UniProtKB/TrEMBL annotation:
<comment type="function">
    <text>CRISPR (clustered regularly interspaced short palindromic repeat), is an adaptive immune system that provides protection against mobile genetic elements (viruses, transposable elements and conjugative plasmids). CRISPR clusters contain spacers, sequences complementary to antecedent mobile elements, and target invading nucleic acids. CRISPR clusters are transcribed and processed into CRISPR RNA (crRNA). Acts as a dsDNA endonuclease. Involved in the integration of spacer DNA into the CRISPR cassette.</text>
</comment>
<dbReference type="InterPro" id="IPR050646">
    <property type="entry name" value="Cas1"/>
</dbReference>
<keyword id="KW-0479">Metal-binding</keyword>
<keyword id="KW-0378">Hydrolase</keyword>
<comment type="similarity">
    <text>Belongs to the CRISPR-associated endonuclease Cas1 family.</text>
</comment>
<keyword id="KW-0460">Magnesium</keyword>
<dbReference type="InterPro" id="IPR002729">
    <property type="entry name" value="CRISPR-assoc_Cas1"/>
</dbReference>
<feature type="binding site">
    <location>
        <position position="230"/>
    </location>
    <ligand>
        <name>Mn(2+)</name>
    </ligand>
</feature>
<keyword id="KW-0255">Endonuclease</keyword>
<comment type="subunit">
    <text>Homodimer, forms a heterotetramer with a Cas2 homodimer.</text>
</comment>
<keyword id="KW-0540">Nuclease</keyword>
<keyword id="KW-0238">DNA-binding</keyword>
<dbReference type="InterPro" id="IPR042206">
    <property type="entry name" value="CRISPR-assoc_Cas1_C"/>
</dbReference>
<keyword id="KW-0464">Manganese</keyword>
<dbReference type="InterPro" id="IPR019851">
    <property type="entry name" value="CRISPR-assoc_Cas1_ECOLI"/>
</dbReference>
<dbReference type="GO" id="GO:0004519">
    <property type="term" value="F:endonuclease activity"/>
</dbReference>
<dbReference type="Pfam" id="PF01867">
    <property type="entry name" value="Cas_Cas1"/>
</dbReference>
Length: 291
């Protein structure tokens, strides 16, 4: 049934995960016989070949480096409500995306309702985020107190991660006006954070939630993206940054930014980080009486 129209009789790429994200790179995306066609030159993630893609069951196409797309493909994706995002290697950059039209507005509405209730639900969501990061639900309901507790905990996280990686650590230092003035570990943390924020931006786009409505971050136009990225600071950002420093100190060939981005991309791809971000976004807005 529908075999020919979907192109299922020929080789096709499997979904990267259950959320219907499709990762493509080093190839050309076009339309043939009413079906998406991807001709891949071959890479670490996509074997060389000619693929037919059943676009009706794909939620978001992530188009990586070395790829091009035809006007017909853009038209077909838009007609079927399939999102398209241009990303960096492994999802470490989020360059642009066409407007997404999710099947449901439930998550965006839940987010907006929670955010609008500043003294009630907004604080509940913020406390859930801190609970995910701290491993426990704290009794405090003052965001300033929670930020202070998290800041003190992160000092110890940095120290232990540096010790495990075997690198010298003199504390977190970051001058926004002159980021390259920082030492190697701090530069690596900055690059890793940017890469993980790009992954979070992909997750936010995939869920149709609103980037501007953050619960811990407030002023940035990407506040909710920063909130989600911070949930993975311990398990992704810091370990990847310090691993990059350890490699750079042994082999000083590549710039620290390139080394860090490569390590984060590998972690995102092999660790299923973006699907995990999507799951956490959904969990944040589920009503829990004890929250």
């Amino acid at each position: 049934m529908l075999k020919g129209r979907l192109g299922l009789e020929t080789a096709r790429l499997p979904h990267a995960d259950r959320h219907g994200l499709l990762w493509l790179d080093r190839g050309t995306l076009s339309v043939e016989d009413g079906c998406l066609r991807f001709v891949a030159a071959g890479s670490e993630t996509v074997a060389a070949g000619d693929y037919r893609l059943p676009h009706q069951s794909v939620s978001l196409v992530l188009l990586g480096p070395g790829s091009s797309i035809s006007h017909d493909a853009l038209r077909l994706l838009a007609r079927h409500g399939t999102g398209l995002a241009a990303i960096g290697e492994g999802g470490v950059r989020f360059y642009t995306a066409q407007p997404l039209t999710p099947d449901s507005s439930a998550l965006a509405r839940a987010q907006a309702l929670a955010w609008a209730d500043a003294k009630g639900t907004r604080m509940k969501v913020a406390r859930r985020m801190y609970a995910l990061r701290l491993g426990e639900v704290l009794p405090h309901r003052d965001i300033t107190v929670l930020r202070g507790i998290e800041g003190a905990r992160m000092k110890e996280v940095y120290r232990l991660a540096a010790e495990r990686a075997g690198i010298a650590w003199a504390g977190r230092r970051y001058d926004r006006a002159n980021p390259t003035a920082a030492d190697l570990p701090n530069q690596a943390i900055n690059h890793a954070a940017s890469a993980v924020e790009a992954a979070a931006a992909i997750a936010v786009a995939a869920t149709g939630t609103i980037p501007q409505l953050g619960f811990i971050h407030e002023d940035s136009g990407q506040s909710f993206v920063l909130d989600i990225a911070d949930l993975f600071r311990d398990e992704v950002t810091v370990p990847c940054a310090f691993k990059a420093v350890a490699i750079a100190q042994r082999h000083s060939g590549d710039p620290i930014e390139r080394t860090t981005r490569r390590i984060v991309a590998e972690r995102l791809r092999r660790g299923g980080v973006i699907p995990a971000m999507i799951d956490r976004i959904k969990a944040l807005f589920v009503e829990e009486p004890s929250a």
